[in-house]
Specification:
Order of helices and strands: HEEEEEHEEEEHEEE
Radius of gyration: 26 Å
Largest sheet: 7 strands, mixed
Number of strands: 12
Helix content: 10-25%
Strand order of the largest sheet: 1-2-3-4-5-10-6
Number of helices: 3
Strand content: 25-35%
Length: about 250
Amino acid sequence: MQKLYLYLSFTLFISLWLSIILLLFLPCTESKTSGGNITSEFCPITNCSEKGPTIRFPFRLNTQPKFCGHEGFELSCSNNNTILHLPSSSSDYYVQEISYHDSIITIRDVQETTCPIQSLLSFNITNSKFFFFPFQSRKALVNCTETVYLYGAIGPVDCVSGDKNFVYVIDSYRSMDALPSACRTCKSFNVSTEFDLLKALMRDSSTPEVVLEWKDFEYGCQGCEKLGDLCRFNITSNSTVCLKQPRETQLSVF
């Protein structure tokens, strides 16, 4: 009788612990019905291809409900590529990488070009949720009727220069009154302070990559991803939550 009692007690104990473990993991379970409806508390994590960047909050695919991502973070898929549309740019952009830990996204113009300056001139993040990473630097194009020496300038840039005009890139904060009489400014554009403009304009002929950042504190998960956890949008509570991730414990050696 005592053995039977011990056996029943042990079985009850194991069943209780299994139930607790299942309850703990149940809120984080993600699933979809055959019709594509979300059946859990969180929108599914997805991507456009096996090697493509992971898409999750604050981003969402345009095929997902709007509450799955934040406004301005909509992505789409095209031929297994992940696409970002910037409202004030004339082009769409391939998403090369998304770092949720650092809140940065690396993109490249879908319109391939052998004249990188053209891509930079059309690039515009006005009215978007993104900022140049780490800081913004404003540049100006200077068009000269003859070759000149401009301290700190890059150029002449061959793909936008001609037989009788020579185009240079300078920092826009420079006094334009100090320009040679043969030169005048024609356009301005912005780049990241870490963008290698010399390489892009003079040594490379491929479409340049641009690194942008977003501010995680605006979306209710400040510091969450940097701690190694996941920032998700909870459909039930209609709010963002920081899902704690398991940590590897390290044993101290004394």
